[in-house]
Structures are given as C-alpha cells and as structure tokens.
C-alpha cells in the first residue's frame, strides 16, 4: 500500500458539492465524484459539476478546452470520456464566467458494490445501499450512463446486490448520497479483487487501522493498513481511500492507496454544496467542512439541505467565510415540466414552452445543465433547440422569473407533463385551480385522478402528497389524468 500526501498551494479555488480536491503528477483527486462538484481545490483550480459541453461548463464558468489534457480515474483520455453530471477538477485560469482549462480531472466519489436490496422504489426516486451508504437516484436529477432511470425501475435485477457502480454526487443532511451521476460496471463484485473508493475523515487512528467518517449520519467504515504505518496520518485528516473488500457486506476496506486531501492553512477557496449540519447561523458544516460565517451578512436565514456557495480562507481547519451565496433553499419547491418548444430567443437567452394550452417562458444561464437524449448532440445548448422540440425541464421560480436548472431533449411527443410537490399556496379551492410556475390549471370532474378521487377530495389532500403529476396524454392541451405519489 502507498500513502500519497499532496502539497497544496495558496490560491483561489472554485468548487462544488463535497470535499477537498488535490492531486499530484497526473492522478486525479476529486471529492464526491463526477462532473458535478465537490471539494476544495488548489491554486488556479476549479471543481464543480459539468452542466454542458461546447467547451465545458463548470459552476457557471465556461472553460475553453481546445488545448486541454483530460484524465479519468488517473488515466489520460479525451473530452468524450466526460459526461454531464460528473464532478471534475479543472486546472486553469478564469475571470468572471469565462476560463481556459489546462487539465481536467475526474474521479468517482463512491465506487463499489450494491450491498443489499433496494430500500425504496418510487415514480421518481430509487434508494439503494452501496457499501452501506444510502444512495438516492433521481429520475430527473441524476445523469445515467448506458442505462435509464426507467430501465432500472422496470428491471430491478440491474440493481441486484453485488453489482458494481460508480457515483458522483454529495451527501445531504440525512446522510444520504445524492447521486448526480450513475454508472453500472459490467463486472460484478469479487471479494478481495474488485477495487472500491470512498472519501472521508480519519478518526480513531491506530498503528494498523482507522475509522473513516463519510458524513453526518453515516456509519463509519474501518480502514485496515496492512502493509503501511500510520505515521503520515493524523486525526481529523480528510483522505481518499482505494482498496478492496473481503465480502460484499463488509464495512472494512483493505487499503491499497490513501491520499491526503487536507487543505493548506491560509488557502483561499470557494466551496459549493449542501449544508449537512447547522450549529447556528454563524457556524455550519458543508460537505464535511466547518464554515465560520460570523463575518458575513446573510441574505436569509440558513437551513440544512440549503445549497450554498462559500468563498473564504482556511484557518486551522475551518473555512472562514468572506461571502455566502444561497443558490437554492432547502425547502425550495421542485418543479419538472415536459412540453414542446413554442419559441427560442437566443439574444435574451430564453425559451418558451407550450404547456396545457399556455405559454411558459424560461431563462437559461451558464449553470443550466444540458443533455440531449434524442439526437445525442454532445455540445447541446440553446442554439440547438428548435420550435417543436420536446424538452424535459427542471425549473425554479426566482424573483426575476422562471429559470431552467436542467434541460433534456427527448423524442418528440404531443402532450405535456407537470410534476411537483404542491404547496397550500398553489391551491385555489374556490375556483378549483392549481396555480404553479406561471400556469393556471383548472380541474373538473372529467379528469381521471388516481385513487378515484373527486376534485374536491383532491384539493383537500393535494398538499400532503410527495408529488403530483398532471398529464396531457393526447396533446389536446387539456389535463387528462392526475397521478399521486405519497
């Protein structure tokens, strides 16, 4: 086994979702894994989720990659090996929203076997154990490689215990790993042979082993250092561990390589992720990193599972924040819409969809994540969208209007679909209307509601469901069916 301690230099870093990133030679080191974002990076290095190509877009910055080198899991490759949803580390220069990438690195955040039966299977979500960690796959948020969410839902043998998977993502406040990227390995788990990878903090250190804490609420793993001493390790150190398991359900990693990910004192960093623990409004935890917010005036009160971007300086293992931007509230309403394109405005960077007989205009930006399932256009963006295209969009309501967070082009369809967890404020019982995302949906008894509910019963119960799905199945711009997910 070898222990690889990387040297960190002081500089500006742009990051996204989970831990620290560092690397030596041409080996990658990225926290949380995937073109998605995690970590604290080195001088002139940027880490985040790839949201699109045409160059690459990471954390809202467009990096030119004409002369870049690419490394995936330590091996030299090219841009075609990268996928939307992965977390990458970029070495290069950037100013405002434009940059030039010299090198782009990707490492998986969790790589290992599915360790048991599926824990939950819903219309838009699958929860399964991977090395004892609860992993959440989202139908609309997770990017899937060589398989679809629908295929996994319909054929659960694809997710049988012993299947090897590669994941990018981040931990939430409940200790679950929210996957932004998912890939199935062709080879099944083999004891003492299949290599696994995880990232965490060193605790309970002895001469021969230590406990690896992955996140709040996750049972620590045991790491055995059979052929190496613990001289270079210290309590509280952030590390990436690669190794093997003696059995499928083993919680002990036999380490082959351990890499230090600790940030250097006085290093300037920018970190993006979910708040996993909130001590008070001046101190919280972001993907395992303690944040001191005492010098910052907050835009609004912080909550767990809030997506934030923190810029500051590392001091004695704590990130002392100089600025905190709230990117998404923890209780923010999630809205998914599928409909045909009515118009595109390249100058204004907007597109208008026709949903249930109503126009709905959305803005896009450098953080919008793009994916083309229909034509597989690699560098798919707004300029490729045409009138009549059928798009699935994850959107959010902001003070400035509706903004598309993710856009996926699918095979053309005539109907519309709206999925959301409804709030009481969306419901107008007197007029039998649902008002959401600029749409007004009027209900009547001709609509088929799951559970054979009457319209009045629907309004009584609508805010209690995890998700409500409105369907126009025949393209007549009217609601035909309502599905309910509790």
Overall 3D shape: globular
Number of domains: 5
Secondary structure category: mainly beta
* Helical residues, percent: under 10%
Radius of gyration: 23 Å
Q: How far do the termini sit from each other?
A: 48 Å
Multimeric state: single chain
The major β-sheet equals:
10 strands, mixed
Portion in strands: over 45%
How many helices? The count is 2
User: How many extended strands?
Assistant: 39
List keywords for this structure.
single chain; 486 residues; mainly beta; OB fold (Dihydrolipoamide Acetyltransferase, E2P); 10-stranded mixed sheet; 7-stranded mixed sheet; 2 helices; globular
In short:
By secondary structure, the protein is mostly beta strands. It is 3% helix and 48% strand. The protein folds into five domains: 7-106, no CATH class; 196-260, Nucleic acid-binding proteins (OB fold (Dihydrolipoamide Acetyltransferase, E2P)); 268-328, Beta Barrel (OB fold (Dihydrolipoamide Acetyltransferase, E2P)), CATH 2.40.50.140; 335-414, Beta Barrel (OB fold (Dihydrolipoamide Acetyltransferase, E2P)), CATH 2.40.50.320; 419-485, no CATH class.
Describe it.
By secondary structure, the chain is mainly beta. It folds into 5 domains: 7-106, no CATH class; 196-260, Nucleic acid-binding proteins (OB fold (Dihydrolipoamide Acetyltransferase, E2P)); 268-328, Nucleic acid-binding proteins (OB fold (Dihydrolipoamide Acetyltransferase, E2P)); 335-414, Beta Barrel (OB fold (Dihydrolipoamide Acetyltransferase, E2P)), CATH 2.40.50.320; 419-485, no CATH class. It contains 2 helices and 39 strands. The strands form 6 sheets. Strands 27, 28, 29, 30, 31, 32, 33, 37, 38 and 39 form a 10-stranded mixed β-sheet that branches. Strands 10, 11, 12, 13, 14, 15 and 16 form a 7-stranded mixed β-sheet that branches. Strands 17-18-19-21-20 form a 5-stranded mixed beta barrel. The longest helix has 7 residues, at 455-461. 41% of the residues are buried.
